[in-house]
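Quick check before the chapter quiz. The format below is the same one you will see on the exam, so make sure you can read both the input and the output lines.
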Amino acid sequence: MGLGLTTTITRPLVKHGGMPHAPIPILNSLPVPCDEPPPKRRRVSTGLQRKRGVKECLLSQVTPLVERAVGHLSRDVYHVNALAIKTVTELSINKFFRRRWDETGGYLSQQDLDVLAIQAHDVVRGLAGGSEFRISPLSSETPEPQRLPPPRPAPKPSPQGQTPPTIVNTAAANKSEDSPIFYDALTSQPELPQNVERKPYQPRGRREPKPSNRYYQVSERPYLSAAHRQAIEEGTKKPVAVSNELIAQPIVYHVDFSPEEIAEIIGQIPQNEHKHIPATRESMMEQIRLRDRPLIPIPGRTTRDMSAFASDLWAGKVAETPRVLSLTAEHVTEETKKRQGQMRRTSRLSSLLMAREMEGSQGFQRTREYLNFQAEFKRLREDDLQLVAEFTNCAGDITTGAWVNRESFLCGTTTHSDSHNQQYNRPGNLLLCSTGKGTLRSFPDHRIPRPRVEKGENSTEAMRQSQDPWLYSSVVSCDYSVEDDLAYTSSFDKTVKVWKVDRKGEHMEAIATWQHTGNVNFVAAAKDGSGRVATAADSPTDAVRIYTITKGNESNSTYQTFSCSRTDADSSDKWAYFPATMQWGRAKGCQHLLLVGYSPRSLTGDDLDIPEDKRSSGEIILWDAEQGVRIPVMTASTANVFEVAWHPTLLLFLVGVTPTGMNNVPRNVRTQVHVFHRDKDRLNGIGFCQHQALDCYASDINELTIVPNSPGHGYVTAACTDGKVYVWDTAQGDKPIHTLRHGKPIEEYYGDREKEDTGVKFTAWNTSLDRFYTGSSDGVVKVWNIRKLKNPFVRDILTAPGPIAWGGFSPDNSKLAIGDATGRCFILSTDERDIPESHMMTLPGTTRRWRRPIPLIPHPEPAPPTPAREDDEMLTCDELSDAGIADYSRRTYLDSQCLQLTSNPVIGVVQGPRYQSTNLYRREAHYDEDPSAPLLAHFERRQKDSEAASLGLRRRSVRRLRTPSPPDERLRSIHAQNASKDLDVNYLKDSEVKELIKSATLLSIEEDWGFTYEDTMSFDEEA
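Here is the expected output.
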């Protein structure tokens, strides 16, 4: 069996039971002066407060309820005044009243008054039943108190400042009008009756604080060192032979020290008269390192616990949040971990809300640490990310995507379009997802007619006729412009298409197509509202175009072009400089600047065609789209460029390049990230120059990100092909402060991983600097907190079946879309209610609901392309004409007597008299590769096995059963008699059922056979 580890939070969740939920406070509806500062900065006024006090609320709303509750009591029997005051006091300290008074600002709703009216009658009934408020002692002959009438609706609260109401006795026994009861001083002592039995005075003992967790009620709380806890956690991952009776209940094996215990330990340490030691974990660490004597055990802790705690303090391995670790026989599933994480975050949120209400935004006294509440709340919100939807059957690797709005996004995939793998090409290369509807639709617009292949297995006419006449091209880049409400996609069909997307994400329409001279690798829309769209294609000249959108005539939009200024490859027909990356500026003042990085690339796909001295060369071009001129970039602008990125708020950009000869770098530094900013001293202040070079130890960089952590500095990350992410703080020098590692790639590789593996392809920040997201070829999306110098890993939020290829957050940062290399698209959300109802299913025979993957919605089959002309270079006149594959096969093989048909339809076609002319033989299966020679031994053995398998086993004769006749009365009676002998547990006695259950008898033959539900069909490779 397996053991599960359970982590319990040390703060219980607070539930209000069946009490009504808080409505919108009335304070929110009161007018707020417009000429005053915000409430948190407003000066406290000494005038009338907008929030009504407890006493005023009791006088105006609760007192009438108590009047009606005590109205039936006789003044000859009860001390009505004292009983009413006691009732009001009990209601004032009631948790429900305190909570509702705080939530409504002292203005209770009618629903609250109805609840308080019932509570008032209950309190009066209890006090009247005792002898404390009776004028004469309660005897056995005294009749029982009269039955209280049902509570009546509470009257409307009296205006503020009115004379306090009085209680008038309306009982039938005393019709005379009594003196009113005033409640001016609720805190005064009531008049005590003379005949009350007094008990001897006993001093009240000090109340012990309630434990914050049920596990703290144990007499001893064990503490294990971090190494032992890690060993136990690793051991529970393997099956353990242990009886369920021994661990029928959770066994607590580790309890962290609470803040109260830390304060008690510090209180035992002799302190200097001139120095006070604060009761914090950091102070404990300092004292442990300064003192040589062991810690004194406290109640509930042994000397061994104190020693383990001291060792963890010395090593800095004490848990930040106190936890309780326990062992249970129940297997800890993903649902259990998810539930524990939700409970932990809910407890943390409640603690933060209480600390902010009690102490303000300082966040130190109750939390015992300095906190930024806004950052903490953002972090808790991001930690709620969970998988809500999954889509399958896309054409290939999902490598690009762009969110259109908070409910929809479009994405593109790679496809098989080479001459040797065209048979695997399929639709589904361009997709539009609607997260609200839970759909993923494909569109067929990026396609070309299937070309003729001259060599290989796809060159035969049979393969051509059996395949789709269209070849769907890879969609490698896409973007969306909020200002123009248009989406753009680029593909290897040498086009860029402009789309009008439906707001609900259910449909989109292509309104323009821009033709290019090569495969279009990049498309990016400027964010300054100018309508500019930049494209970059595989073209030696004029590779970059900047379109300016013409409303209503997008197809004829004008554009400007520019090229790489290097002339090294002009005389070569084997390699050239192509755009490797492209980004528009993000900060104000630079959104019209386009940054393009060039790198050398072979035209044939063989890197050996590039001269060795040119493989590390390239160029950085910064283009001003408004003026149509190039902006100078000084220093290190001629290196091979991998990736570029802009700062979100400053005139600053990053460039990932190979180390240049001007920089004296160590041997292990294989790439660098250069930081450029505007040079105000040279070139009239319009140029950019390098002011920092960050050292990277990977040979290739996939993505760069930069996020500010101060006005002049920020965190820089580089995702690389070695499966690592390097993190720098520009204020701490040129060396990485973190190296975030992913696991081994899912796909096998041979040789150098950095050259064959894709590595980390997804890096992103969300709303908090405490959460950094990465996805790599190991198929895992990880979350990191790079602000922690040690162990920045937080958790894994997704494990995909293939390498992670793309990811992006929605505009409102509430959803995360992830695409992998198996054609699956995942949607994660911070709200569990975003799970589409259409994705849920209920297994037959159960009530449990499961979320299942949903395939994409295919597009309608497009019409075949028009037939090519006879002079088309793709076709030849002596090849197959318009006839189908059947006519072609008959003319080629049957009419030429290469093959011949047999009369047996099971055997079909066999070799004909002229089969030798085809020369279609397995020569390697014959001796000396001679088709006329005998077969080799292992080939002949396989042939015999195949013959035996085709013949099958000896046919066995099976006796046929005759069709049964309809049952008669005799058969019906026999059937009824047999059916009555079946065991029906419902007709057994309770004692018999208990006896059967005690003896572990299987009462129902229906059981779960343990079959695992598979999302997709699995095929046996050996079949």
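If your answer matched, good. The CA atoms of residues 221 and 301 lie 6 Å apart.
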